């Protein structure tokens, strides 16, 4: 049994395909940050989410606190801009237009908390988008 500190359907799907038995507990954390480095931002947000779930379980005296907790966050970076979640349809269109015909990076930070000890890391992939 693993606690997935994420509401992402894709993350749930990936871990389930690997045979993991999951308990989903999401963390409501403030994702605002002044960090401009995408790797540091993704990793720090993943850590923040994992710790929030761990602390929630501790405060509830839950026996689930002994289970491994996995959290993650993904950051898209293009032309010096960290691109968050689109605010609306127009913002999504603006973002896709910016990505069209060029390369950008996608960084996923991950945190695993086991026995109260957090480990975090990140990986960055360069992505090319055809002209849209």
List keywords for this structure.
single chain, 132 residues, six-stranded mixed sheet, alpha/beta, 6 strands, 3 helices
Which secondary structure elements does this structure contain, and how are they paired or packed?
Elements: E1 2-4, H1 9-17, E2 22-24, H2 38-59, E3 69-78, E4 81-83, H3 89-99, E5 103-114, E6 117-128
Parallel strand pairs: 1-2, 1-3
Antiparallel strand pairs: 3-4, 3-5, 5-6
Order of helical and strand elements: EHEHEEHEE
> Describe the biggest sheet?
6 strands, mixed
Report the C-alpha radius of gyration, rounded: 16 Å
Number of helices, counting only DSSP H or I runs of 4 residues or more: 3
Record field, number of beta strands: 6
First and last CA, distance: 42 Å
Name the beta content range. Answer: 25-35%
- Structural class category: alpha/beta
The global form is: elongated
Unreliable segments of 5+ consecutive residues: none
Helix content: 25-40%
